[in-house]
Write a structure and sequence with these properties.
Membrane topology (chain B): Peripheral membrane protein
CATH superfamily of chain A: MetI-like
CATH architecture of the largest domain in chain B: 3-Layer(aba) Sandwich
Distance between the termini of chain B: 39 Å
CATH class of chain A: Mainly Alpha
Protein name (chain B): Amino acid ABC transporter ATP-binding protein
CATH topology of chain A: MetI-like fold
Strand order of the largest sheet of chain B: 6-7-8-3-9-10
Shape of chain B: globular
Strand content of chain B: 15-25%
Pfam families (chain B): ABC_tran (PF00005)
Oligomer: heterodimer
Number of helices of chain B: 9
Number of domains of chain B: 2
Structural class of chain B: alpha/beta
Largest sheet of chain A: none
Number of strands of chain B: 10
Helix content of chain A: over 70%
Number of helices of chain A: 8
CATH class of the largest domain in chain B: Alpha Beta
Radius of gyration of chain B: 18 Å
Order of helices and strands of chain A: HHHHHHHH
Structural class of chain A: mainly alpha
Subcellular location (chain B): Cell membrane
Largest sheet of chain B: 6 strands, mixed
CATH superfamily of the largest domain in chain B: P-loop containing nucleotide triphosphate hydrolases
GO molecular function, one term (chain B): ATP hydrolysis activity
CATH topology of the largest domain in chain B: Rossmann fold
Order of helices and strands of chain B: EEEHEEHEHHHEHEHEEHH
Largest interface: A-B, 18 and 24 residues
Radius of gyration of chain A: 21 Å
Chain lengths: ~220, ~240
Amino acid sequence: MIRTFSYVDVMYLVAAARWTLALTSTAFVGSALLGFLFAIARISPIAPLRWLVAALVYIVQGTPLLVWLFMIFFGLPLVGVSVNPWLAAAVAFSVYGSAFLGEIWRGALVSIAKTQWEAGASLGLSTFQQLRYVIVPQSIRIAIPPTVGFLVQLIKNTSLAATIGLVELTREGQLTAAGTYKPFAVYITVASIYFVLCFPLTQWSRSLERKFDGAR
Amino acid sequence: MALVEVQRISKSYGALQVLTDVSLDVAKGEVVALIGRSGSGKSTLLRCINGLEPIQAGAIRIDGVQVNDPTTNLRKLRQEVGIVFQSFNLFPHLSVSDNITLAPRVVKNQPPEAARELAREVLRRVGLEDKLDAFPAQLSGGQQQRVAIARSLAMRPKVMLFDEVTSALDPELTGEVLKVLESVAREGMTMILVTHEMGFARRFGSRAVFMHEGRIHEEGRAAAMLAEPKTLELQTFLNAVLH
């Protein structure tokens, strides 16, 4: 039976957006942890480690996120590992995100002049202390704008999780569209909700860029 | 025994030989001026002394501890060998006080209050006590370099290396930095300076070392050597820098 697209449906969509946010947060935390390790590994003096992580990053950046999602969700059960959509999405998005965040952060770390490392080393600081007190604090200001930009991409990309049946904003939209037969109205609502989530972040990222460009 | 012993060291970057068979002993309290054209290897020699650059042959010892020995704790050694760079290399995100106290706090585990007191003391020695809470970007080049010297002094090093510390400064700012160097020298600090300030070398250098093409070409008592160079290369160099 076809029902009408009503206020209640809009509320359901808004409610589903919390799963979009939940997936985004989980993926962002996963990406950040893994990405930070990748960034450090990429600037480490141990060459094989650098190559290994570089290869990993290039592979992830050179393959579609959707394929990773399918590989983990449909592929792992075939080798006896059962995964629910949530876990599959969290893992796929974390791997995908870590490759990008890792590169963003590596770029920020290497943009700090070599003389800053030397100044730290000359004062007797260990490599870890040089990173902790000298390099990372200076890199953060450079890394924040592109990191926020990445977060916006991540929010939008979580819509791919709809394809493995995770009921987030886009999937809820599909279900509502099927039930009401009002795809245009439904998807415009869905798009609006994404926009409301992303637009403030985009603006924030822009203002951070301006702020950090102006300073020093 | 000399405080700094450089014995027959050689260094190359790939095929490019930068230092060839360089030996130099510096006794406690000496002020040695390294002079020479750019590219003659004097800055490299300085950077080898605190282990920033590896060497391929020879040995460097500071107070008996060998720098180019993989088992040496370079971090510990560097606490005793201060270095001040041409481009100051202050930490731009930290206040003057934090620049100075960072290493005493995290390397020597000094309590923050004692470290801040130390910062005040070394800033007084370079005449910048009022800049304790300023940020590097708010200071002139000369003031930044004096903070860099104070930062190095705060580690109470046995020897200090100065790598063309006035070269990045406008002429009117070099005076204030030289004045600080003079007072550090007068306090008895062992100093090795790469410098183009011949006047300073003559007045305060106990010794001058002229480097040419990666070798020590001529050395001697600073005033005598600069007044009466023996080799043609040093004569040519002095003529070029003094006129």
